[in-house]
Write a structure and sequence with these properties.
The complex is a heterodimer of chains A (911) and B (410). With 911 residues, chain A is an alpha/beta fold. Chain A has three domains: 239 residues, no CATH class; 229 residues, no CATH class; 240 residues, Rossmann fold. Chain A has 35 helices and 14 strands. In chain A, the strands form four sheets. In chain A, strands 10-11-12-7-13-14 form a six-stranded mixed β-sheet, with helices on both faces. In chain B, the strands form four sheets. Chain B has a seven-stranded mixed β-sheet, covered by helices on one side. A five-stranded parallel β-sheet of chain B has the order 2-1-3-4-5, with helices on both faces. In chain B, strand 14 and strand 15 form a beta hairpin. Chain B has 410 residues and is an alpha/beta fold. Chain B is 36% helix and 21% strand. Chain B contains twelve helices and 16 strands. Chain B has two domains: 189 residues, 3-Layer(aba) Sandwich (Rossmann fold); 158 residues, Response regulator (Rossmann fold). Classes of the chains: A alpha/beta (911), B alpha/beta (410). The interface between A and B is large, with 97 and 90 residues. Chain B: Pfam families: Peripla_BP_6. Chain B: It comes from Actinomadura macrotermitis. Chain B: Belongs to the leucine-binding protein family.
C-alpha cells in the first residue's frame, strides 16, 4: 500500500521532469541545441506568474495562460532571433556556453527587473525573498485527499499531473497531426531536404523554440509552489530532467516523457526504501546524476546529431598568420612588461595587486580549458571539480603533516587521476553527450565525494597556508603575480610544444576527423587521455594555488556551477589560445570591481555575462579572434579599395532555369568556376561528368542550398540568387538530391503530404503507384532503395514543378527501377517540366536527354544536342579533352537552347 | 623552434630578476591601526543580502547601524565615533565573500568587519591571516576556534569533546513540561553541513531528557522535493510505530520547512514542531506558508521583540529610528554591534588591532537582550542562550523567554 502511494506520488514529481524533458527533447531535436537554459526559462516565467498573481493581483486563470502561453513563446521567439538562430550552425562549444550564459542571465534579468520596478519606479510588487512563497496553478486553499491509507494527494499535485499530461498529449497531437508538426518533424529529419520541399526551416526552428519555451514556462509555473522562486532549484530540476531526456535519446518525446515519470517514481522509491543510502551522504540527492551518467554510458553510443545542424568546431582562419613571430608576440610582450612594471609600484598588501593575482590564478586554471577544449575540442564542465579535488587532496595531505611541495604534487596527481577517469567515458562519447557526462560527474563529486568528511573535513575544509619561495612568500600579492605569470608562461610553452609535436598533431587529427585519424592509425584513445590528464593537471595546480592564496579550501568553495561560468568566460575571450585564458581570468577577477562603480546590483554582472552568449552567437571564436579578424578586415578593405571588375553577365537566353556565370565553392575551395546552363521547359538536360566535376554543387546552387560567390540563378527570368531554398521550392523548383530524397523517419503518407497537402492529390499518387499505397503508413526509411526514389519523385507527378532537378537518380538502383524512374521523367517532360538530370554514368540518361552538357573541373566543357553525342565526344569529355575544338559547340546551350538540334517538342526556341 | 630558446631563457631570467627586485619592497605597516583615527573607527560588514534561494541576512546591516547610531549619539567610545560603511553582499558564494573581505580590509581599510552573517562566508582564513577582528551571528564552523572571529552567540559547531549547547532541548522541554519519556525526531538535508546539525542538536535534546525517535538527513540537499510522502511516512512511524512528540528541523530555507510541516500536518502530525529560522515576518507573509508554520516554535538566540524587557524596548526604538524592519537578522546585527562596542570600551583609548584582540582575550559581558558572552570560552562553544517564539495566526508570541543553560560535552 505504501509502495503504491510512493509510485502514485512519484508520478506527480515525475510529471514536472517529464514536461521539462519533453521541452528539452523538442528543442534539441528541432534545432540541435541542447538548451541548458531550459530551467532558467521556467524560472523566469514562474517569476512573471508570481508577480502577476501576488503582485498585480491577476486571477490565476488569466495569469497562467498569459505567462506560459503568451510570454513564454515570445521569450522563446526572442531567444531564437537573438541567439539560437546564429548558434544552430556554430560549434558545440559555443552552443553549450551560450545556453549556460542564459542559465545565469535570465533569472538575473527577471530579478533585476523586479528590483528596478520596485526601487526606481515604485511599483507595488513583492520582491523575491525567502517566504515570498509563490503559488501554482492549483486552487487555494489546497485540498487534500487520502485515496488510500498512507497515501496523501493534494490539489496542487493533481493539478500538476493533469496539466502535465494534457500538455504532453497536446504536444504529441500537434507534432503528429498538424501541418505545423509535420514541418517541424521534417526539419528534424532532414533540414536541407525540408527546405527543398518548401519548408522554411528557420521558421520551423522559431516555432520549436516557442513551443519549447511554452513547455518550460508551464513546467516552471507548475513547479514553483514546491520549489519556491529559487533559480538554483530550477537548474537542479533541469539536470534531473536532462536525465529523462537522455533516456529518450534526445529524440523521442514520448520516451522522454515516460522516462521523466519513471525518474520521479525511482526517486521516491530510493527515498522510501534505500535505507542503506543513509550512510552515504548525498547519495539520494545524487540519484538523477547517477542515472544521467549511467544513461549516457549505455545510450551514448547511439548518439546522432540532429540533421542539418552539423556544427563542426572548425578553427577560424588565422588572420595574423602573415605576421612575423615577434610582431604577433609584441602586444602580449608589451602588456606583460607593463603589468610587471605596475606590479613593482604596488605594496605587498595592495588591493588591486591582490585582484590581479586572483585573476591570474583563475587564468592558470583556465589554461586547462585551452588544452581540453581549445586543442582537444572536448567540452568539459567538470573543471572546477578537478580544481577543488586537487585543492582538497593537497589540503588533506598537508594536514597529515606532509611538506607543502609534496602536498601540491599529490593534489595535482589526484586531479590527473580524476582526469583519466573522466577520459574513459570520453573515449566513447563526444560532443554534447560528453559535456553532459562531465556535468553528471561534477554533480556527483559535489553531492557525494566532497561530502565525505574524511576527504573534505566537513564544512570546515582544510587550511593551506602561504608558502615561501626562499626570498619572499606568497602573502605578498606581487610575488603571487610574478609566480603565476611564470607558471602561465610555462603552460603556454607546453601548449605550443603540444601543438607542434607528433602527439600534438595526433590530437588535432583526432579532433578534426576522428574516423580518418583512426584509419591512419592514430590512437584516439591515447590522445584524448593525454589531453584530459594534462588539462586536469593544470586545473589541479591552479586549484591548489587558488586555495593556498585564499588560505583555505572547503567543499563548497568551487561548486560545479562555477565550472560552467569559468568555461563560459574563457570561451567568450577565445578558448583556442592562452591569451584568451589570461584575459578571461583577469576579466573574472576585475570585472565585478569595475562594475561596482556603476551599479550596486548583483544582477547586472550576470545579465552582461548572458549577453556574452549573444555575442558568441555571432562570433563563436571569442573576443580575441574577433580583434584579429577586425584588424584583418580593415587591412583587407584598404587593399581592396579598387573594386574588382564585375564579370559581364552572359547574354540572356531562354530556359525556365538558368545559371549564369556561377562561381561557387565551400570555404576556400572553389568548385564551380563560371557555369552557364539553361534548362528550357519541356526539355531534359543531362548533366554529365566525372566524380568531383561539380555537378552536385551546381544542383545545390540551383536549388539555393549553396549561395554562389558570383553569378546569377534565374527562375522564369526572375533573379532568385538571393532567395532561400524553401522560397525557390514554393516557386516550383523541385530537387531530388543525391541519395534518396525522402525523410526516413516520416511515413510514406507524411512524405507525400509535405508536397501534396491535399488528400485528393495523394490519392492520385496511390492510384498511380499502388505499391506506395500499400505501404503508406510505413516509415520511408524502411522502403527499398527503388521505392524510396519513386517516393521522392512521386509528388512531382501529381503536382508537376516548373523545374525538376534529379541528382544521380539512378545511383544504386536496379536497371528495372531506373527504367521506371526515367519513364517518369519522360512523362514530366511531356507535361512541360524543365528537367535537369545529373548522372555520372551516361548510358541510360542519354536515351532520355534532349540536350547534353559535360562538366569537368567546375566548368561546362561541352554541350549540345543529344544527337551530336557519340562515343568520341563522350570519351574526350570524360578525359577532359573536350575543351579543344568543342568551344564553338558549347556556346549554343549556354546562350539559349539546344544548338542546332531542336528538342522534340520545340519549346526552347532559338534566339 | 630552436631560435626561440635563447628568448625563452632571457624571458625566464628577466622574470626571476623582476620577482626578486619586486619582492624586496618592505611590507606595509599591517598589525595595527588601520581604520582608526583620533575621532573615528571605520567598520563594514559582509552579509548574504541576495542568494539564489532567496535567503537573506540583509536585515543585519540596519541592525548594526541602529546600534552604532545610538553609540554615536552618546558620544562614541573613548571619543571615537563609529564610521559604519555598510555591508557587502556575498550572494551566498564563498569566493564573493572572500573578495568582499579583501575589499573591506585592503581598499576600504576598515578596522574590523561587522556585521558578518553569511552561511558560506569565504573570507574567514583571510581575516585570520590579516588579524582583522570580525563580529556577527556565528552559524557555520568557520567561526569556531579563530583568534579574530567573534560570534555574539559563541560557536555553534564545536568539535567532539568540546562543549555544545543544551538550551534548545531544555527550552522545548520546558514548553512541554519536561523532556523525560518524550521522543524527538531531528530532520536535516542530505549534506555534510546539515548532517552535522543532527549530532549537536540531537545532543541538545537528549541532554534535556528526550529520547531520539530518529534522525534523518534524507532530504535532497539542493532543492526541496515535490513529494514529501516517503519522508513524512518515516517520521510518522518513528516512535515505535507512532509519531514522535517533537519534530526538530535543522534545515534552513523556507521551502524546506514549510513544505515538510504542511505535509506532516496533512498526515495528521499533532506534536510540537520547532526550528531555528522561522522567526521571520517574511516567512509568514504568504497565506499558504502561514498555515504550514502555524503553531511552530521558532528558536531565536536573543530575547524576542515581543518581550517587554527594557533592553528590547530600547532595541526596538533604535531599530525604528533607522527604519529597520523587526526581523531576526536586524537583532543579530544589533547585538553583534553591541558586543563590539563593549569590547572597544574595554580596550581603552589606545586602540590597535593588537590591543583590541588582547582585550578580547579575557572578556565577559552579560545583557538580557542576548544573554551572556565570554571569550575565549565562546570561541569553541555556544553561549548557551536561546528563547522560543510561537507562531500563531501570522503573529508571534513569546513562549519561553531567553534563558541561558549549561553546555554539555559533545
Amino acid at each position: 500500500m505504501e509502495l503504491l502511494g510512493y509510485v502514485l506520488s512519484g508520478l506527480v514529481t515525475g510529471a514536472i521532469f517529464a514536461l521539462l524533458a519533453a521541452g528539452l527533447t523538442l528543442s534539441y531535436s528541432a534545432t540541435g541545441v541542447f538548451n541548458f537554459a531550459h530551467g532558467a526559462i521556467g524560472f523566469l516565467v514562474a517569476l512573471v506568474f508570481f508577480e502577476l498573481t501576488a503582485g498585480a493581483g491577476w486571477p490565476v486563470w488569466l495569469a497562467g495562460p498569459v505567462a506560459a502561453g503568451v510570454l513564454a513563446p515570445l521569450l522563446g521567439y526572442a531567444l531564437h532571433r537573438l541567439m539560437f538562430r546564429g548558434l544552430a550552425r556554430s560549434g558545440e562549444t559555443a552552443q553549450i556556453v551560450a545556453t549556460i550564459g542564459l542559465t545565469i542571465a535570465l533569472p538575473a534579468l527577471g530579478l533585476w527587473t523586479v528590483d528596478v520596478l520596485v526601487e526606481t519606479f515604485g511599483a507595488d510588487l513583492p520582491k523575491v525573498t525567502e517566504g515570498a512563497a509563490a503559488r501554482g496553478l492549483g486552487p487555494r486553499p489546497v485540498h487534500t485527499w487520502h485515496p488510500l491509507s498512507g497515501v496523501t494527494l493534494d490539489s496542487d499535485q493533481v493539478t500538476t499531473f493533469v496539466l502535465a499530461v494534457l500538455a504532453a498529449a497536446a504536444l504529441w497531437a500537434l507534432l503528429r497531426h498538424t501541418p505545423l508538426g509535420l514541418r517541424m518533424r521534417a526539419t528534424v529529419d532532414g533540414r536541407d531536404l525540408a527546405c527543398l520541399r518548401g519548408v522554411d526551416a528557420d521558421a520551423a526552428s522559431a516555432q520549436a523554440w516557442m513551443l519549447s519555451a511554452a513547455l518550460a514556462g508551464l513546467a516552471g509555473v507548475l513547479a514553483v509552489p514546491a520549489l519556491g522562486l529559487d533559480a538554483n532549484a530550477f537548474t537542479v530540476l533541469l539536470f534531473a530532467s536532462a536525465t529523462a531526456a537522455v533516456f529518450g535519446r534526445l529524440r523521442s518525446i514520448p520516451v522522454s516523457f515516460a522516462a521523466g515519470l519513471a525518474l520521479g517514481v525511482v526517486q521516491n522509491l530510493v527515498a522510501g526504501y534505500a535505507d542503506f543510502a543513509e550512510k552515504v551522504t548525498g547519495f539520494r540527492t545524487a540519484v538523477p546524476a547517477i542515472l544521467l551518467f549511467g544513461g549516457l554510458l549505455v545510450l551514448g553510443r547511439a548518439r546522432g546529431r540532429a540533421a542539418g545542424s552539423i556544427a563542426e568546431d572548425a578553427p577560424p582562419p588565422d588572420h595574423l598568420a602573415g605576421l612575423p613571430r615577434w610582431r604577433r608576440a609584441l602586444p602580449w610582450g608589451v602588456a606583460l612588461a607593463a603589468l610587471l612594471a605596475w606590479t613593482c609600484t604596488r605594496g605587498p598588501d595592495d588591493y588591486w595587486a591582490g585582484l590581479v593575482a586572483q585573476g591570474l590564478v583563475l587564468a592558470l586554471v583556465f589554461c586547462s580549458f585551452v588544452v581540453v577544449t581549445g586543442l582537444g575540442g572536448m567540452v568539459n564542465l567538470a573543471q572546477a571539480t578537478f580544481a577543488a579535488l586537487a585543492a582538497l587532496a593537497a589540503g588533506l595531505a598537508f594536514s597529515k603533516g606532509l611538506p607543502f611541495p609534496l602536498a601540491l604534487l599529490i593534489g595535482v596527481l589526484a586531479a590527473v587521476a580524476a582526469g583519466v577517469l573522466v577520459a574513459l567515458p570520453a573515449l566513447r562519447l563526444g560532443g554534447r553527450v560528453l559535456a553532459l557526462a562531465t556535468l553528471a560527474l561534477a554533480l556527483l563529486a559535489d553531492q557525494v565525494l566532497f561530502q565525505i568528511d574524511a576527504f573534505s573535513n566537513g564544512t570546515v575544509g582544510w587550511k593551506l597556508p602561504a608558502f615561501s619561495l626562499g626570498f619572499a612568500d606568497t602573502t605578498d600579492a606581487r610575488v603571487r603575480i610574478v609566480l603565476l605569470l611564470a607558471l602561465i608562461g610555462l603552460v603556454a610553452l607546453l601548449v605550443r610544444n603540444l601543438e607542434r609535436s607528433a602527439s600534438g598533431r595526433a590530437v588535432l587529427a583526432v579532433r578534426s576527423a576522428p574516423a580518418a585519424a583512426q584509419a591512419a592509425g592514430i590512437s584516439a584513445t591515447r590522445a584524448k587521455i593525454t589531453l584530459f590528464a594534462l588539462a586536469s593537471g593544470i586545473a589541479g595546480l591552479g586549484g591548489v594555488l587558488y586555495a593556498t592564496f585564499n588560505g583555505q579550501i572547503t567543499a563548497t568553495d568551487l561548486p560545479a556551477l562555477t565550472g560552467f561560468v569559468w568555461l563560459a568566460v574563457v570561451v567568450l575571450q577565445g578558448v583556442r589560445r592562452i591569451g584568451g585564458a589570461v584575459l578571461g581570468g583577469l576579466v573574472m577577477a576585475l570585472f565585478p570591481e569595475v562594475l561596482g562603480y556603476v551599479t550596486d546590483s548583483q544582477y547586472v554582472g550576470m545579465i552582461l555575462f548572458g549577453l556574452g552568449g549573444m555575442v558568441l552567437a555571432r562570433h563563436p571564436d571569442g573576443v580575441l579572434a574577433q580583434f584579429a579578424g577586425l584588424r584583418h578586415h580593415l587591412q583587407h578593405r584598404r587593399r581592396r579599395a579598387r573594386p574588382e571588375p564585375i564579370a559581364p553577365a552572359a547574354e540572356a537566353g531562354e530556359g525556365v532555369l538558368r545559371l549564369e556565370g556561377v562561381v561557387a565553392g565551400y570555404g576556400d575551395a572553389t568548385v564551380l568556376r563560371g557555369v552557364d546552363l539553361a534548362v528550357p521547359a519541356g526539355t531534359v538536360v543531362a548533366l554529365l561528368g566525372a566524380n568531383g566535376a561539380g555537378k552536385s554543387t551546381a544542383c545545390a546552387v540551383a536549388a539555393g542550398v549553396l549561395r554562389p560567390a558570383a553569378g546569377r540563378v534565374l527562375l522564369d527570368g526572375a533573379d532568385v540568387t538571393a532567395l532561400p531554398p524553401h522560397r525557390r521550392a514554393r516557386d516550383g523548383l523541385y530537387l531530388a538530391p543525391e541519395g534518396r530524397g525522402v525523410f526516413p523517419a516520416l511515413t510514406v503518407e507524411e512524405n507525400l503530404t509535405l508536397w501534396l497537402p491535399s488528400a485528393a492529390d495523394r490519392a492520385q499518387v496511390y492510384r498511380r503507384l499502388p505499391r506506395l499505397a500499400e505501404r503508406r503508413a510505413v516509415a520511408a526509411g524502411a522502403l527499398s532503395g527503388g521505392e524510396q526514389q519513386i517516393l521522392a519523385l512521386a509528388p512531382a507527378l501529381v503536382r508537376p514543378p516548373r523545374v525538376l532537378i534529379a541528382d544521380e537518380p539512378s545511383l544504386g538502383l536496379a536497371p528495372r527501377v531506373v527504367a521506371q524512374v526515367f519513364e517518369l521523367f519522360g512523362e514530366l517532360r511531356d507535361r512541360g517540366v524543365a528537367l535537369l538530370v545529373v548522372e555520372e554514368k551516361a548510358s541510360e540518361v542519354l536515351a532520355l536527354a534532349d540536350t547534353v552538357a559535360f562538366m569537368s573541373l567546375g566548368r561546362i566543357t561541352w554541350s549540345g544536342a543529344r544527337a551530336e553525342v557519340d562515343q568520341d565526344t563522350l570519351t574526350s569529355a570524360y578525359l577532359g579533352l573536350a575543351d579543344k575544338g568543342a568551344d564553338r559547340r558549347s556556346r549554343p546551350l549556354a546562350t539559349g537552347g539546344a544548338g542546332g538540334h531542336p528538342p522534340a517538342n520545340d519549346r526552347s526556341g532559338d534566339r | 623552434m630552436t631560435t626561440s630558446t635563447p628568448f625563452r631563457v632571457l624571458a625566464l631570467g628577466l622574470t626571476a630578476a623582476l620577482a626578486a627586485s619586486c619582492a624586496t619592497g618592505k611590507g606595509a605597516a599591517g598589525g595595527g591601526s588601520a581604520g582608526v583615527t583620533a575621532s573615528s573607527i571605520k567598520v563594514g560588514g559582509v552579509l548574504t543580502v541576495t542568494s539564489p534561494t532567496g535567503y537573506s541576512t540583509g536585515g543585519a546591516e540596519l541592525g548594526a547601524k541602529a546600534r552604532f547610531a545610538r553609540a554615536n549619539a552618546e558620544g562614541g567610545v573613548h571619543g571615537r565615533r563609529i564610521d559604519f560603511v555598510g555591508a557587502e553582499d556575498d550572494g551566498m558564494s564563498p569566493d564573493k565573500g572572500a573578495a568582499a573581505a579583501r575589499k573591506l580590509v585592503q581598499k576600504e581599510k576598515v578596522f574590523a568587519l561587522l556585521p558578518v552573517s553569511a552561511p558560506q562566508f569565504g573570507g574567514a582564513e583571510f581575516l585570520e591571516q590579516q588579524k582583522v577582528p570580525w563580529f556577527g551571528w556565528a552559524t557555520g564552523p568557520f567561526w569556531c576556534g579563530k583568534a579574530t572571529a567573534f560570534g555574539f552567540n559563541g560557536c555553534l559547531a564545536p568539535k567532539p569533546g568540546q562543549q555544545t549547547q543544551t538550551w534548545w532541548g531544555n527550552q522545548v522541554a520546558a514548553q512541554l513540561g519536561g523532556g523525560k519519556g518524550k521522543t524527538a525526531w531531528i530532520q536535516a538535508t542530505d549534506s555534510t553541513a546539515s548532517k552535522y546539525g543532527l549530532t549537536t542538536i540531537g545532543r541538545s535534546f537528549t541532554a534535556a531528557g528526550f529520547t531520539l525517535a530518529g534522525t534523518s538527513a534524507a532530504l535532497p540537499a539542493q532543492a526541496p522535493p515535490q513529494d514529501w510522502s516517503p519522508y513524512v511516512n518515516k517520521i510518522m512511524k518513528s516512535a515505535g510505530g507512532k509519531a514522535p512528540d517533537v519534530l526538530v528541523s535543522v534545515m534552513a530555507g523556507g521551502k524546506f520547512n514549510s513544505g515538510l510541516y504542511a505535509a506532516l500536518k496533512q498526515a495528521g502530525f499533532t506534536g510540537l514542531i520547532t526550528d531555528a529560522t522561522s522567526y521571520d515576518p517574511k516567512a509568514v507573509a504568504d497565506p499558504q506558508a502561514r498555515k504550514a508554520l502555524d503553531g511552530v516554535y521558532a528558536a531565536p538566540q536573543f530575547e524576542p521583540y515581543e518581550s517587554d524587557l527594557p533592553e528590547i524596548a530600547q532595541m526596538k526604538t533604535d531599530l525604528q529610528k533607522v527604519g529597520a524592519s523587526l526581523d531576526q537578522h536586524a537583532a543579530t546585527g544589533y547585538w553583534s554591534a553591541d558586543v563590539f562596542l563593549k569590547m572597544l570600551e574595554k580596550t581603552g583609548k589606545d586602540l590597535t588591532r593588537d590591543s583590541f584582540l588582547k582585550a578580547a582575550d579575557a572578556f565577559s559581558y552579560e545583557n538580557k537582550g542576548f544573554g551572556r558572552i565570554s571569550y575565549p570560552a565562546a570561541k569553541t562553544a555556544s553561549n548557551g542562550c536561546g528563547a522560543l517564539v510561537r507562531l500563531q495566526n501570522g503573529g508571534f508570541t513569546v513562549a519561553q523567554h531567553l534563558k541561558c543553560f549549561d553546555n554539555t560535552t559533545l
